[in-house]
Amino acid sequence: MSQDSPSKEPNPHGRPLRAFTEPDYEPLCRDLAEVRANIDRLDNELVRLVAERAMYVKDAARFKRDAYQVSAPARQAEVFNKVRALAQKHDRGFDGLEEVVDATWRAMVAAFIANEQKYFNHMIDIEEKP
């Protein structure tokens, strides 16, 4: 059985086996190992940014009155519309990028809301001063 057979992982240092038909497509990497190294680099940065976003989500709980405000459906819709527009703005030729971004943000926001609710439930009310 050859090293590039369908039953095995692709050779990360092998030559490309397929080509895009788009005439203006320019390859980004020499081999799959370079593709993976760049994806790993971006994953590190994305997780760092998600961790930063998480702390703002945690802080937001201080400003909410109840579970409805934690879920903030109008704000969710605003965020989803904004990131879809950002996907259009930043798209460099990936068909379906808007759908990927939308699905990613919906999953991320749902997980953040669940965690924000946990924080909210363990907070104390601050007495309002006249």
Question: How would you characterize this protein structure?
Answer:
The protein is mainly α and 130 residues long. The protein has a domain of 90 residues: Chorismate mutase (Chorismate Mutase Domain, subunit A, Up-down Bundle), CATH 1.20.59.10. It is 59% helix and 0% strand. It is built from 4 helices and no strands. Helix 1 packs parallel to helix 4. It starts with 31 loop residues before the first helix and ends in a 9-residue tail after the last helix. 2% of the residues are buried.
List the helices and strands and how they pair.
Blueprint: H1 32-60, H2 67-71, H3 73-90, H4 97-121
Helix pairs in contact: 1-4, 3-4
What labels describe this entry?
single chain; 130 residues; mainly alpha; Chorismate Mutase Domain, subunit A; 4 helices
Explain briefly what this protein structure is.
The chain is an all-alpha fold and 130 residues long.
SSE succession: HHHH
Structural class: mainly alpha
* Apparent shape: elongated
Output mean pLDDT.
94
Low-confidence stretches: none
CATH C-level of the domain at 32-121: Mainly Alpha
Distance between termini?
A: 79 Å
* Helix content percent band: 55-70%
Task: Provide the β-strand percentage band.
Answer: under 5%
